[in-house]
Amino acid sequence: MKIKGAWIHTPIRHNDERGHFEEQFKISQIESELGRTFTVKQVNQSVSNKGVIRGIHYTDSPEGQAKYVSCPKGAIWDVVVDLRKDSPTYGQWDAVELSAENGLSVFISEGLGHAFLSLEDDSVANYLCTSEYSPGADRTINALSAKLAIAFESSGITEFSLSEKDSKAADF
């Protein structure tokens, strides 16, 4: 992805008459591709209807939180936002479609914000996280912030549903 610290994992899919098999997560690949470790401390899962936007979420704690996000059912338009003030891509975003069909996953480093738009009803998003949820460090930025101008409409969806927390979040 154009934002340093965000990386798309494209699995090798092995198809046969039974279906397919792929390696969705492999720590040795993260270590070789990104030169870092990734210790999973919490696994989250959400189910969202078409048009639901979740995020922009990030963790403001000393250790931060990296995420590895996949979509084993349905499809989501996954968005990464650079929130690191010293980064050359501060305030920029990048996105990729994750779906059961394409098998892609995205790695999101500490200091980056994360949001997604569900492209289908009952889309499932799985998140492997490097830190446990901490309510005191949980932060949200409004995904519809005009300053970020995230192109959610490019999906063809024009009506969005956000939680009260996400819709009342501060603009970037």
Q: What's a concise summary of this model?
A:
With 172 residues, the protein is mainly beta. It has two helices and twelve strands; from the N terminus they run E-E-E-H-E-E-E-E-E-E-E-E-E-H. The strands form three sheets. The protein has a five-stranded antiparallel beta sheet with strand order 1-9-6-11-4, with no helix packed on it. A five-stranded antiparallel beta sheet has the order 8-7-10-5-12, with no helix packed on it.
Describe the structure.
The protein is mainly β and 172 residues long. Helix content is 7%, strand content 39%. The chain has one domain (6-167): Jelly Rolls (Sandwich). The protein is built from 2 helices and 12 strands, in the order E-E-E-H-E-E-E-E-E-E-E-E-E-H. The strands form 3 sheets. A 5-stranded antiparallel beta sheet has the order 1-9-6-11-4, with no helix packed on it. It has a 5-stranded antiparallel beta sheet with strand order 8-7-10-5-12, with no helix packed on it. Strand 2 and strand 3 (19-21) form a beta hairpin. The longest helix has 8 residues, at 27-34. The protein is globular. The model has no long low-confidence stretch (mean pLDDT 96).
